[in-house]
Amino acid sequence: MGEYLVEVEGKYNLEEINLQIRGEEAGASEFISSSVCSYEGRTTNIAKFRELAPGTVPKEITLVPQGHSPPEGAKPKPIWTGEMIISGTKQAVSAYRRV
Amino acid sequence: MCRLVLFDGSSRRQCRAVLLVLLSTAVMLPGCSFVGRGGAPEMSFDINKDLKELTKHFDQAAAISEFYKNPTREARDEFITARLVLTNIRYLQFIRDITSEKQLIDSASEMTVLSLNLAGAAVSGVDTKTVLSTTAAAVTGSKAIIDKNYYFEKTIPALVAAMNAERKKALVPILLGMKKDLQHYLFCDAVTDLHYYYYAGTFSGAIQAIQSDAGVKEQKQDEQIKVAKLVPMTEGDIDLKVSLTQAIGKLQPQDLDKVKNALSLLDADSAAPPADIEEAKSQLQRHVRNAKDPERIKELDAVFKKSGIR
What we know:
In chain A, 12% of the residues lie in helices and 48% in strands.
């Protein structure tokens, strides 16, 4: 399956970004990672997703500030940790997936 | 004994002097002060003065007015080769002043050799051909004299490499044009191409080419990214999209017509309909995956219901 990129604007807060990423995964895709990039003259988050087989929805993903405890019901090890622009500022975050 | 066409009053001494000048010019030692920094002996004659003498020989052929005295293909080609020789010798001198990178000088020297061989082929005098061909050999042989201890800025080799590459690119239309008759490669086109050739060997030309290449690469990168922007979603939007994906997962081979119907509603201009249910599911899933906003998700839901998929 192919991989593709989407922009996640950094003006949104973490809760809004979580909903956007889950919304993208709802279409049979899986979040892989995100990078702070310069795109079309602005600094923004460019997230990478992997296409899954038709009809496949991955377990729920949740991003939390790095160092925070994993969400309840999530695997203890994050699937990704990195920087994102959230509410206009660069922050370190970790992504966890439900068991 | 070579009979010179280069100077009035041909003589063996003048022939040797010209060859020595071209050797020195090819080595590109700009002056006695530079020699002190490198591994080469001091010269016993003034290169700039001798370059002027060389220029005098090619100047006439390189003059536009000379062509119009007798506008033939031969006159055009003689003009082109004269301009190329002068441009290349000056270019070699220019870059030898700024870099000791052997590979870069080799590349520029090869261009000079090419232009000298072209000049030898273009002119009609047998002895001139001999002199120019001998000179071409001298340029090739003189590449060995390189000052390895010459200090240079790290950006200079990159600029020179860009200039060398752009000059080769700019030379192509000229060489192709010389194979055509005067009607199909006009003299004015040759003049324009020669100007581009000269400009390619300047820092401005190199920087412009580097910027242009960087711009193209950036545009290609941007095209490759092809990013869609995610928009705010509610839990309800997400649940609806999940239900559409799950409905696709439940499709069976007997549902193929339902999927074809849905696909025709979603994309009337689509190519050949899916051959089997797996292909149909993939196409339908692509529509759901590309539904980035709540409105589109609702549209898909309506199509799914109309087609009996949900």
